[in-house]
Amino acid sequence: MGFRYGSYCEFICIECGGRLLGCDHSQSNNRIVARGESSHTRSMISINIVAIPTELAEAVCTTQKSPRYGHPVYTAIATGYGPCRHCLKAFRVGEEQLTLFTHDPFEGIESLPLPGPVFVHTNKCERYPEDAGYPQELLRYPSVLDAYAKGRRLLSETVATEGSQPEIIQRLFENPEVQYVHVRDKSAGCYDFRVERR
Ligand SMILES: [Zn+2]
Fold first, then answer.
1. How far is the CA of 123 from the centre of ligand 1 (A)?
2. Before 113, cis peptide (omega within 30)?
């Protein structure tokens, strides 16, 4: 399925010559070229990074209840990196205040929910821009990439480490059946954010 990222073939950005997914243009709608034994050209698939909506984050902190479920939220000083599901930044452990609540990552997309615990900053933060590519700050954290087809049908589950997430996401979206990818934390298993085709 899709590209083979074997040693014979290296993908480079035609704007800056940087390695694919390692350059600043990796998330824009640039064409890339493959050098090595093959000389074909392919388009990168443009993606959106979808953090939870601002209205949801604000409702959580205002009402102190989990929207839809009504469970009381839990607020504390961060003891782990999170991340915040709204700004997609890692928490400053021991400094920042976080709020834990119950969230269904399929809400608005699929009819069958799958709620789980997620965190946001207790104080207002800026939602992560959808067109900013995979959050650089989160590349270092091992994650699980769940590729879903329509109807919440799980097609594959891939563990990504050492910054391989953008490369794997490109490969997953080469399958036209894949509608969206859920990014989850590898150790905690919690939902972080969704990735869609732009
Ligand atoms: Zn935040």
1. 8
2. no
User: Could you give the CA distance from residue 183 to residue 47 in angstroms, rounded to a whole number?
Assistant: 13
43 Cα: distance to centroid of ligand 1 (angstroms):
32
Residues 12 and 56 in one domain: no
Measured CA distances, 114 to 104, 105, 137, 153, 179 (Å): 5, 7, 27, 13, 17
Range of the domain at 81: 52-121
Residue type, 137: E
Mean pLDDT over residues 14-33, rounded? Answer: 41
Residue 37 lies in a domain: yes
- Select from 101, 121, 141 the last residue of a domain: 121
Residue 143 Cα to ligand 1 middle (Å): 19
Please give the structure tokens belonging to residue 46.
Answer: 């443009």
pTM, to two decimals: 0.78
Distance 139 CA to ligand 1 centre (A): 17
Tell me the residue type at 99.
Answer: T
- Mean of pLDDT values over 98-106: 97
